[in-house]
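User: Hi! I'm working on a homework problem where we have to compare a predicted structure to a textbook description. Could you give me the structure for the chain below?
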Amino acid sequence: MSDAAMRRTGIGLTVLVALFWAMDGAMKLANLAPVAQTMGPLGWPTDSATILTLGLIQTGSLALYLWPKSSVLGAILLTAYLGGAIATHARIGSPLPSHTLFGVYVGVFTWAALWFRSPALRALIPLRNTKD
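Assistant: Happy to help. Predicted structure tokens:
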């Protein structure tokens, strides 16, 4: 695949990933009732300060991810955020494929989007041909 095609693929995936992250973060920043209703059974505090803090962390990390010069840092922070979600679901015994591993799926797409759009990351983490 050419560099231009890789970049276009990365941008397309980035749009999808960013829409997910932005929607989730915006719901927290708006302090929508379904957010608190979902967080309580997971063992998280449902006060507006906690929800706002999580929303700010999430949207701040997304902004870093979308800015090319800080995209790797943003991806690392988003991955850390997902780690908390995975640990939360594992702790309460949520279904593995649909809930606990959902953070893994989002993380793979988040990094794949960055990998496709960043030649530097592709050089750092190359996919090797198994015939070599």
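For your comparison, note the following. The radius of gyration is 16 Å. The longest helix spans residues 3-29. Good luck with the assignment!
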